[in-house]
Every structure is written in structure tokens, then in C-alpha cells.
């Protein structure tokens, strides 16, 4: 293989990795959506009659029905329907008496298809006894590799933002609404968010922070039940009900958005100053 082809192959593999393709499932491509594959090999039919010599008919094309792929072997068990998965998630989350139990339950939960494409579960980081909890949308590529939330570029920015108000990962608790990386870092679907919602709600309840910070539009809308965009909700305070107590919650921009739009950092700074003030008064 020439150096140019080697470089092209490396670039293609890098593209696949960024898109979330990180597992080889077969040596040859297979159309798993096809019900039948046509075998165009001619088949000659010979007809024997009582009073004549055998007559050979013209070849005809016979369809060959391809066997259904063994999805249990190749793709794992199919996830349950969304409504059934949501009910199962609620029941499973209620059974967790501690954050350790909740993590164990999540690691075995098969109701969300994202677990089959992610490398591993990304549960949380920081101090579960902290007075403030930050919740984002879903893990990215770096988080999927390390198994911890906010360890990529957006995580480094979050560390700087926390440090500016006297916080760090020893004094804050960090998690995501979705604990598995969506392929290619795509936005989680509403069904995926609803399936994972009982787990993050139980996680917040067990961590029991004084202040909950929802970072980004998906986390804000999922946890706080608002329909407005993040520009309309950031900086505003809400009451988050856990079932056992009321927690003050605030929405702010996601660090990944701030990396793409640095001009919005001034608004995030105001939000973090408000978080600092709320912690001093609680």
C-alpha cells in the first residue's frame, strides 16, 4: 500500500471514529433491512412426459429468500418499546436506595438502545455529598472513552467556570441526563431522554444538592419541563421537586455551546455569580 493510500485509510478511520463507528460487526456488508435477496442464477427445469422425450424449458429466475439475520447474536437483544422501557426505568430507579445501587442498576438496564453503541456507562464525577450538582445532556467521545462526564474540551471549560466561583470537582457533583454516548454525538431523541429521565431524577434525589444547575437546552427542558429555549430560560430559577424536598434549580448555557459561541460567556458568568450567591445563602 502506498503512503497516500495509507494516509487516506487513516483519515477514513478517523472520520468513522468521530461519527461513532467503533466496532466491526462483520467481514462483508449485509443489508439487514432487506427481506429477500434475489438469486439470479438460472435454473433449468426438465419436464418428463409419458410419450415424448424429456423437454428442457428455458431457464427461469428463481428468487432465493435470504435467511433473517441472527440479531440476537450480531446486535444483542432488541430494546423494549419506548413506553414499556419508560415504565421499566421508573420501577428500576425506585428500587435504588443509594447512588452505588443506582449505578449498578443502570449498568444492567437494557431498555435504552444507546447502551449497545456506547463503550461504557458514564454515571457521574465529583463529590456526591456536594451542595451543588451540574447536569448536562449526554457524554461525548472523550467521556465515553474515560467513563466520566465532562472530561473533554467542554469539561475543561466547566472546570474553569467552577474555579471562578470557588468550586471544583471535590466540591461539586456532575452528571448527565443520558448516561450513554449517542452515536456521533448526535442529540438524544425525546424517547431516549424520557427513558433515562427516571434515573437522573433518582440520582438528583439521592445526591440531594441544595442547588441544581441544568446546562444546555436538552437538560433544562427534560428536567424542568419547560418548553422555551435556553436563551429564554438561562439565569432563571425554578423549583425542582424530588418527591421528598424542593431544590432550587437554575438553567445556564452548556460549556460546549460557549466554546462555539464565546460571546455568550458573559451571560454564563452572570449565571455562575448567581449560583455562588445562592450557595452562600442556603
Low-confidence sequence ranges: 35-40, 61-76
How many strands appear in the DSSP assignment? 8
Strand order in the sheet with the most strands: 3-5-4-6-8-7
Number of helices: 11
Measured distance between first and last alpha carbons: 65 Å
What structural category arises from helix and sheet content?
alpha/beta
| Structural Rg | 26 Å
Task: Give the topology, please.
Blueprint: H1 3-18, E1 46-47, E2 55-56, H2 71-74, H3 82-94, H4 99-108, E3 124-126, E4 132-136, H5 141-146, H6 153-164, E5 173-176, H7 190-207, E6 211-215, H8 217-224, H9 230-233, E7 237-241, E8 246-252, H10 255-260, H11 265-281
Parallel strand pairs: 4-5, 4-6, 6-8
Antiparallel strand pairs: 1-2, 3-5, 7-8
Helix pairs in contact: 3-7
Amino acid at each position: 500500500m502506498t503512503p497516500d493510500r495509507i494516509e487516506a485509510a487513516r483519515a477514513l478511520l478517523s472520520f468513522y471514529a468521530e461519527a461513532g463507528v467503533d466496532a466491526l460487526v462483520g467481514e462483508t456488508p449485509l443489508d439487514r433491512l432487506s427481506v429477500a435477496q434475489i438469486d439470479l442464477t438460472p435454473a433449468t427445469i426438465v419436464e418428463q412426459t409419458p410419450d415424448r422425450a424429456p423437454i428442457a424449458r428455458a431457464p427461469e429466475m428463481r428468487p432465493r429468500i435470504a435467511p433473517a439475520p441472527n440479531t440476537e447474536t450480531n446486535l444483542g437483544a432488541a430494546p423494549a418499546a419506548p413506553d414499556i422501557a419508560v415504565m421499566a426505568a421508573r420501577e428500576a430507579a425506585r428500587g435504588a436506595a443509594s447512588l452505588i445501587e443506582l449505578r449498578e442498576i443502570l449498568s444492567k438496564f437494557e431498555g435504552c438502545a444507546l447502551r449497545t453503541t456506547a463503550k461504557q456507562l458514564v454515571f457521574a464525577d465529583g463529590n456526591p455529598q456536594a451542595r451543588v450538582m451540574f447536569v448536562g445532556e449526554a457524554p461525548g467521545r472523550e467521556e465515553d472513552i474515560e467513563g466520566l462526564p465532562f472530561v473533554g474540551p467542554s469539561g475543561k471549560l466547566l472546570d474553569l467556570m467552577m474555579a471562578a466561583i470557588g468550586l471544583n470537582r471535590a466540591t461539586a457533583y456532575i452528571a448527565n441526563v443520558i448516561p450513554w454516548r449517542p452515536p456521533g454525538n448526535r442529540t438524544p431523541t425525546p424517547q431516549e431522554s424520557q427513558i433515562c429521565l427516571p434515573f437522573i431524577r433518582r440520582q438528583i434525589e439521592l445526591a440531594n444538592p441544595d442547588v441544581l444547575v441544568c446546562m444546555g437546552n436538552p437538560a433544562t427542558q427534560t428536567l424542568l419541563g419547560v418548553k422555551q429555549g435556553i436563551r429564554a430560560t438561562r439565569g432563571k430559577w425554578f423549583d425542582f421537586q424530588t418527591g421528598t424536598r424542593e431544590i432550587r434549580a437554575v438553567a445556564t448555557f452548556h460549556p460546549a455551546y460557549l466554546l462555539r459561541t464565546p460571546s455568550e460567556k458573559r451571560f454564563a458568568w452572570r449565571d455562575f455569580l448567581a449560583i455562588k450567591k445562592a450557595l452562600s445563602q442556603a
